[in-house]
Amino acid sequence: MSYFSTSRRPGSAVSYLLLLLTSWCAVQMLTRLVMLLSAAGAASLAVPDLIKCFGLGFIYDLSAGVFFCLLPLVYLLIPQHFLSARVHRYGLAALTFLLNVFMVFCAIALYLYWAEFHTNFNFIAVDYLVYTHEMIGMIFQSYHMGLIIPAILILAGLITWGQSRWLPQEYNWAPRRALALCLAGILLPAGAATLTSASWHTHLTANRYNNELTGNGPYEFVHAYFANELDYETFYETGDKDAGLAQLRQNLSAPNVTFLDDDSTLREVHNENELTGKKPNVVLITVESLSSSYCGAFGARESQTPYLDALAQESFVFSNMYATGTRTVRGLEAITLAVPPTPGQSILRRAGNEDLSSLGDAFRQNGYARDFLYGGYGYFDNMNAFFESNGYTIRDRLSVPKDDIIQETVWGVADETLFTQVLRAMDEHAAAGEPAFEMVMTTSNHRPYTFPMGRVEGKQGTRNGAVRYTDWAIHDFLERAKEKPWFNNTIFVIVADHQADVAGKTTLPVHRYHIPCLVYAPGLIQPGRTDRLVSQMDLGPTLLGMAGLSYRTSWLGRDLFQTDPAVDRAFISTYQGLGLVQDDQLIVLTPDQQADARHIDDWQTSQYSEESVPPVLNQQALAWYEQASDLYQRGLLHNR
């Protein structure tokens, strides 16, 4: 009997390939079920939603399974005269074991990723794969890999043993049947790649968890790799560009603004108050994953930040600020460049991001030294290259003296060590007689959530413990700063880069973007509070207004205190969904050239009700997002 017999009994090539495909689909469906059970309190358990989730999920599993079976199919095309039957069988068994290791690894990795981010593999997973040092270090510091790796090997071995009797027994090469398998190896992957779409499950149900569960992990990973950047005009709704620019310029108009041309946002911003001429130092601390839900001063039921809560009483508090995205590079982009999030990757990661109109450039125009200080290695997410090419001096993990390091993780040194570097930098600038702007990015509130012992009562390896430590480190830094001669002429800003948990039942849960922000400057800025809706991208212009500093810029942020509260808005996004929040409404632009609108019934829980798209709000969304992408592509957000 021919080795390539099409008989579907044990021992045939076709039955073996079908067994591999069945094993793949079974493991994927089981993984999906386990993930569903882990999110049972948030996912929809309605029968129609489950049928959609598992039905379409099976199609995705089949599509990915075709590629899973491709390598063994190619192996089976090796004629007998190249390998003996015995060697062929052992080689096929070894290949099967390796495939099963990959299959089990993907299942466990997806579950752990789901537990952390409450989403399927996406562009974050792709980025982490690029930065292997941080990813591998974080995994080994966060999980019991001494148990997980043997478990993967054992499970893969058991699956391989169960499949062993199905290994093909006969090795007579039949060219016609080999040709049939060869054609299958070409046509099936081509069909799987072209006939399925990752967008099918985006709006499958009203529950975001179910939609994410529907996707196949490896399929979503590959899709995210190729969809990391999106051209706005190709994928999103567009409008009249001239009208959009006119609307944008109107949005940016203010009593202290003078536009310098007719086809961009280039303008002079004139600020004058009691601080004008004093040129106060500015230390802007961007805190990793500091959710408002941790801070009592920002509405947390169980506060993990006693020091920040107390500091808020002495600060000017922005109680209603919203992050633009879900990653550090998005937060740095919003704060540094004062732009709404453009689809795909952050500008920090893109080509052509040198010499942009930035917060650092505004300080440069006023004679300030500018530093970017980061506790980790700044090559991550292209931070060093971006900030250096935009006029900042880099002080990252490589700049930290060995004797200063108290404790570190794969992500960087403990926050208190980072703040020691900030103090040192400020001392150097003070000695040189120059005002300084310090852009600081912390790392301690990041998995594996470990920190120096004896600082706080928080438990090691927990997010709450890491937040308590970061809170303590900021307090310790300010106490040490108070002893410095430059303290009385310094503005300290504390803001989050993004929330710790951005998952929710809806695609863009507005409450998951709410972040703390406060400005502490004893003797310079009076304590106070504003509850106005404000975007993270407006922090820079508002801060410069508070400091009495004038500047020339092309950015798209605006000074909160120079604008009418009636037009307050915020921007929230994923790497594909672009949201504009205004007047208790949320409009979302999606990469199928559509717009969805929802009324925000409850800001604290992101309870929405669907509504038709308001034309005025839709025009506003297009003015902000389309123009931001267009101006960047045309180089009109650069220094001029």
Please outline what is shown here.
With 640 residues, the protein is α/β, with parallel strands linked by helices.
Q: How would you explain this protein's 3D organization?
A:
- This protein has 640 residues and is of the alpha/beta class.
- The protein has 2 domains: 13-226, no CATH class; 282-558, Alkaline Phosphatase, subunit A.
- The protein has 20 helices and 21 strands.
- An 8-stranded mixed sheet has the order 7-6-10-3-11-13-4-14, sandwiched between helices. A 5-stranded antiparallel sheet has the order 17-18-19-20-21, covered by helices on one side. A 3-stranded antiparallel sheet has the order 1-2-16.
- α1 crosses α2, α2 crosses α8 and α4 packs across α7 (145-163).
- The protein is globular.
Distance between the termini: 77 Å
Structural class: alpha/beta
Tally of extended strands?
21
Give the name of the CATH superfamily of the largest domain.
Alkaline Phosphatase, subunit A
**Low-pLDDT residue intervals, each spanning 5 or more residues:** 1-10
- Rg computed from alpha carbons, rounded to a whole number of angstroms: 28 Å
Secondary structure blueprint with pairings:
Layout: H1 13-38, H2 47-68, H3 70-76, H4 85-117, H5 123-130, H6 132-142, H7 145-163, H8 175-195, H9 208-214, H10 217-226, H11 232-235, H12 241-252, E1 257-259, E2 267-269, E3 281-287, H13 306-312, E4 316-318, E5 321-322, H14 328-337, H15 359-364, E6 369-374, H16 383-389, E7 393-395, E8 408-409, E9 412-413, H17 415-431, E10 436-441, H18 463-481, E11 490-496, E12 514-515, E13 517-520, E14 528-530, E15 534-535, H19 539-547, E16 551-553, E17 570-573, E18 578-582, E19 585-590, E20 594-602, E21 607-611, H20 615-633
Parallel strand pairs: 3-10, 3-11, 4-14, 5-15, 6-7, 6-10
Antiparallel strand pairs: 1-2, 2-16, 4-13, 5-12, 8-9, 11-13, 17-18, 18-19, 19-20, 20-21
